[in-house]
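Thought: the user asked what Phosphoribosylglycinamide formyltransferase looks like in 3D. I have the sequence; next I should run the structure tool and report back without guessing.
Action: structure_tool
Action Input:
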Amino acid sequence: MIALVILISGRGSNMASLLAAANAGELPARIVGVISCRPDAQGLQTAALRGVPTRVVDYRLFAERQQFDAALAEAIDGFAPDLVVLAGFMRILGGDFVRHYGGRLINIHPSLLPAFPGLHTHRRALAEGVRIHGCSVHFVTPDLDHGPIIIQAAVPVLDQDDEAALAARVLVQEHRVYPLAVRWFAEGRLRLQDGRVQLDSPQSGEAVLIAPQLAAN
Ligand code: GRF
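Observation:
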């Protein structure tokens, strides 16, 4: 069993999907702590209700990002995790922080990276008229929403989609791929080596792309 710390800023549905997978025995991992950068994050209540220790490191209390990063690292290291999982964590982390957790810090982003890093990915995908959109799980590097990609899931963009409909279709896939990526790491099959993702003995198609049936979901 590896120990996980999950960092959130808001709703926490990806965190909840990881908790559910762990509780169902699908993840050889224990979620030892959930940390939010906002005291009002809804996900904090979800975690507490399930008996997971929570902490708040309120970014507004720090004048400099480096001070925030240091306080956050202290809170994380207090839980001694093997893997740090960013799940809707909305602060940009500095290079020193990212290097400190090199190879054991992962993120989920709601686009098929490297397309649409940053915010409002679904709105931008609609504005660009892309026909395929999705989500990516990646190891974190000092560049925002960039880094070796572990797994992606694609969904179709439908003519009648608005931002909410597209976001909901992608979110269903986020809740599938994140537990899968964490499971691979927990099983010792997934690592970052020389800046590249290594997955031991992948089943056919497993690591490359989950392409759910190209139909409305
Ligand atoms: C997700 O779409 C995630 O990919 C993005 O922010 C959203 C967070 O949702 N980074 P939740 O807090 O996990 O519900």
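Thought: the tool returned a structure. Summarizing for the user.
Final Answer: Structure for Phosphoribosylglycinamide formyltransferase predicted. Residues 153 and 173 are 6 Å apart (CA to CA). Residues 211-217 have pLDDT under 50 and may be disordered.
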